[in-house]
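Task: encode each sequence below as structure tokens.

Item 1
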Amino acid sequence: PFTEKRLKNYAYTGEVTWRTFGEYLSEMERMKTSTNFAFLIGHNSLRLAAGIMGEEKVTDDQLKSMKNFIEDSMEAGALGLSSGLEFAPGSYSTSAELKDIITAVGKYDGIYASHVRNRDSEIFDAINEFVDITRAGGVRGQISHFNVRHDSNAPQNAWRRAVDIMENAQKAGLDITADTTPFREGIGAMYAILPRDLVNLGPKAIAEACADPAKRKELRTQCDRYWRFIHKGQWHRVYLEGSPNFPELQGLSFPAISEILGKDEWDCYFDIMAAAGDQCLNLIMVGELFTDDHLKEMISHPDFSLGVDGYTSTDHGALSEVTSSQHPYCGHIEYLAHHVREVGTLTLETAIHKMTKKVAERFNIQKRGEIKEGYFADLVLFNADTVNSRSTIAKPQVYPDGITAVLVNGEIVVQNGAHKGKRPGQVIRRTA
């Protein structure tokens, strides 16, 4: 029931027939997809499967269960382990827990990818923790969207100094790289700015607190975490990605929402959270997180792959109602149109390498990422002079211009903007 409820948040209404990672991959293959998929094991899913629901001390039996789940999943084809340590329930885990379970990934030459524990005042601790976990498991390490949010109390030159930690680990023999995203804006969970003690109580308690006038008054002074610039009053940097209760506010900044609702930004935030009830954990906001200079230094770093941060999405049907972010629509196009053609941060060849071959090699995906005889024909045919991202914060669900065709495993799936209805995608499993 828990899994079915979670999947409904992403528009899946079918029956949950799988009970293992391998069975899930088999179900994906049975259903058939238009794109290829490769999977990491979710750390939060591991904790739930082992019966760990919150901040309680993890027992030896639970650690053993998690490692057994990892080994079974790696055998079934998982590429490695993924963690998200800035949000509950991943934030409840300790370094000791992660160092213990990562050894099961190391047995299979897997990769450990992590949204690290902090991106501002404690970023050095967060990167050092990542390095320690990678070392403990003897695994390849991938720091997911390695960035520092602007004006969020980070130390001076925080990103460069944090990258120094990564590079020093490389010199010491560890195999660690990172990736980044293309936009100045990023997405985040709306609940994540709230005090951890409140978040620990669950979605119902969060919604009730946000509806309580007295509690609202307290919370206004207690939200100095995650996107810490909000605590400083910088609501002009924050947009509502979407809310089922306030569809007319999608893509608007909080100052604009404030004008429409006739309340200050904090009360607008609390109203939206309260109206969502037990679904408040699913609300997403968009923030102006990075400067142009920071984007350039991340994108141009030789050890950074180019990726996006978001969900698989579509502009129609049930899934379109629950996932609305620029990233899945035009993220990679933004690299080509803006960072290559408009500002020249990268050459076209380097950008394509950093989003194809570099990624395939990093995750040990065989016979993909290059155009070579005997390789799978996963191809995007585009015009480098006209390819353009049309997606915006206010209207994210718009596909790009300038793409002639998309081929997956040699079959044309999209041509001249139209989906051909084909599903040649494969589940890409770990190879020994």
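Item 2
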Amino acid sequence: MKDKIGLILLAGGVGRRTQRKVPKQLLLVGGKPMLVHSLEKIEDIPQIASVVIPCADEAIEKTRYVLDAWGYDGAKYRIVEGGATRHESVSGGLSSLSGCDYVIIHEAARPFAAKADFLRLVEIEDRNATLGVPIPFTVAEVDKTGNLSGALDRSALVNVQLPQIFEYATLAAAHEKAAQAGRQYTEDASLLHDQLGVAVRIVEGSATNIKITYPSDLVIAESIYRSFVIGGADD
């Protein structure tokens, strides 16, 4: 069992790829802002003592309004200005956390991560872990000309999902090393393994734990909400 856990809830979207004027993390799914779906899952987990929410400067005021309106206005929840990239937002979030032995990374654009997913990461014996699901389709490599160069063995591949949990000091060290090398990453399990050679346990995720990026994803999300959340499968 881990304690003294901080959570970085990435909420840097401004709505460009979803083609909405509202920041992605504030779009409604099942009548509720995406950001709130995630906060509801973790609010009763006592080991998570602090939550940092990096978001774009132009979205800070709207995000704060939503937090206040839904009752997440206590000292536990802090909004900070995000970086120009996801990688920079995580680095800034780490700097904003203090007194934590572990840190959970999650994305507001994944509203269907279940409370059970967070609890498994809190309770797992491994110090560093991420959700992941098998890839059910063929993945191929292409060369620089855009031609197929070979198929990958999908039995050795996973689709990495969030949330993820890491030792705070280890992740901070990996970010520092990546900064010195001028490297940026799109997720932190790969960063940790690449920069420090640290083992990261894959914990079975769920096909419904989608990341909402494009307008079509919002249609899928509403279907998931009606079929699984209202139906009681999302706990």
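Check on item 2: Residues 215-229 form the longest helix (15 residues). The two ends are 20 Å apart (CA to CA).
End of task.
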